[in-house]
Design brief:
Blueprint (H helix, E strand, L loop, with lengths): L2 H8 L1 H27 L7 H9 L3 H9 L4 H14 L5 H20 L2 H33 L5 H53 L23
Length: 225
């Protein structure tokens, strides 16, 4: 039995799961490309920039940061520009750095909610296919009356088993990828907060709280499952 036969045997739910699997793979590949292109793990510029600040070479520090694509570098540059501005209070600086950091975090979190939804909905769709398959099997059994033939149940059982298996096959990699990508975003968020505090401390504008966490941050939805 080839792949086409399996999807035909699994019923319409299999086609929905196939579409969701394609969407999940697309999101994962796009996010991995985005994270790699942004250089999220390349933070070697932090210490040289801080060293330049300690020597009061602000322009040199900003020039070095402008060559980086990392969102951490962008937040660090914002902290330097705001911290060096004597017209801005510590509260104003904190608000601006938080705003810039939140914008970068929102960009990194884009489509992660969709990936999380796929990971949670796929097993439910598989369960729906299981229920509809068993309903079809018992309807066939009822229609057969006293002429019970095991082959009558085969179609419904096939649909039940295939949709359950395929739903889990889609959900497990999607959930694993979601947690990995979310972990990368959390690591960047922590790095932003760390470098912001270190930069603003240099200017004597140490913030009471630097936040890059928006109210609509992706939440772990597994508690209710």
């Amino acid at each position: 039995m080839n792949i086409v036969d399996l999807f035909q045997q699994g019923g319409p739910v299999m086609l929905v799961l196939l579409a969701m699997s394609v969407l999940a793979v697309t999101i994962i590949l796009l996010k991995l490309f985005q994270f790699f292109r942004s250089g999220l793990r390349r933070l070697s510029f932090v210490e040289p920039t801080l060293a330049a600040l300690r020597e009061n070479n602000h322009n040199q520090a900003l020039t070095a940061l402008q060559q980086q694509r990392s969102p951490v570098a962008q937040v660090m540059a914002c902290a330097i520009r705001c911290g060096a501005d004597p017209t801005l209070s510590a509260k104003d600086v904190e608000a601006e750095v938080s705003r810039v950091g939140s914008a970068h975090i929102r960009n990194l979190e884009s489509w992660l909610r969709g990936l999380s939804s796929i990971a949670h909905l796929s097993p439910l769709l598989g369960l729906l296919g299981t229920v509809t398959g068993m309903i079809a099997a018992f309807m066939s059994l009822e229609a057969a009356g006293s002429r019970v033939d095991p082959s009558i149940l085969s179609g419904g059982i096939w649909e039940a088993l295939l949709t359950t298996a395929f739903g889990l096959t889609v959900a497990i990699p999607a959930m694993a990828a979601f947690y990995y990508l979310e972990g990368e975003v959390d690591r960047v968020r922590a790095s932003m907060k760390d470098v912001s505090i270190r930069v603003l401390r240099h200017f004597g504008k140490t913030p009471t709280h630097i936040s890059t966490r928006d109210d609509d941050k992706i939440e772990d939805e597994t508690h209710g499952i």
